[in-house]
Specification:
346 residues; 6-stranded parallel β-sheet; alpha/beta
Amino acid sequence: MPPSAPRPTLEAVAARAGVSRATVSRVVNGGAGVRGPLVERVRAAVEELGYIPNQAARTLVTRRNGAIAVVVAEPESRFFTDPFFAQQVRGISRELAAHDNQLVLLLTGGAADHERVGRYLTGGHVDGALIFSLHADDSLPVLARKAGVPTVIGGRPTWPDPDTRRRTLYVDCDNRGGARDAVRRLLALGRRRIVHIAGPLDQPASVDRLDGFRDVLPGIGTAMIAEGDFTPEGGARAMEKLLERSPDLDGVFAASDVMASGALRVLRQRGLRVPDDVAVVGFDDMVSVAEWTDPPLTTIRQDIEEMGRLMARLLLHALEPATDQDGVPAVSSIITPTRLVVRDSA
């Protein structure tokens, strides 16, 4: 077998383009100060020779790694079974790829993992971090700040310090408004014994959805609310508790489609017809769940993939403060709208 051809060098590209090595370096590393015709000649030579820039050399010139950490504050068992995460990471990945950035996925299942992530961020391997599914006691944002890594949070920040909250870049949806729409839908159907399956109450999205539920039903008692964990099993357990407390319930607002799917299973096992006896509304509009439940689920839609894309765009914009990438404004937060999607369950 003949030996493989040597990799093209910067000098070879310079010779092919008829320019200096320094000019080639500025073009391939994104530098300024090179006239348009020369840029085209260099790019043509790069294409002809199949030149691949050396990442280490590029990093020295640009002080950028071209890599972004996506930190999910959940263990592998949750991340790989919940379709929410797949949709959000897909949006992030597409936006990063469009700007020639690599995605580095980091999952955390406890304090030891937080330390590992902190060391990785401090090590200068990535240009920034996207962190989501945070819980109230998460130290990940603090670790990212100590590492000096620009960060965007998925979800409304709840740090005690108001100045820190104000300076935190984040993307979220209108959780509270969406929850209000869900309950109003149930009321419009004539339901009066409405219960709520909440998400983990150490997460802002769950708290906001519970607050939206209470906005419409201000006198609701705690017996009408049960906390789940954003899993089908958690939704089923919460539904069992609510049926024990309120056997005559006629409406359910679940804080996620996944939990709603567990609730539907329990209602079916109890011989209760949906929506005839009990109407059910979820939250998320994950098609892989909502359109495949029995019956298909009425739900509140949030554009999960778009939220991931916006997180990535906000971070890339923060990394390039002197430019305006695709019209992204210099904002610290983005709240995306939600809307009711009516199917057969309510």
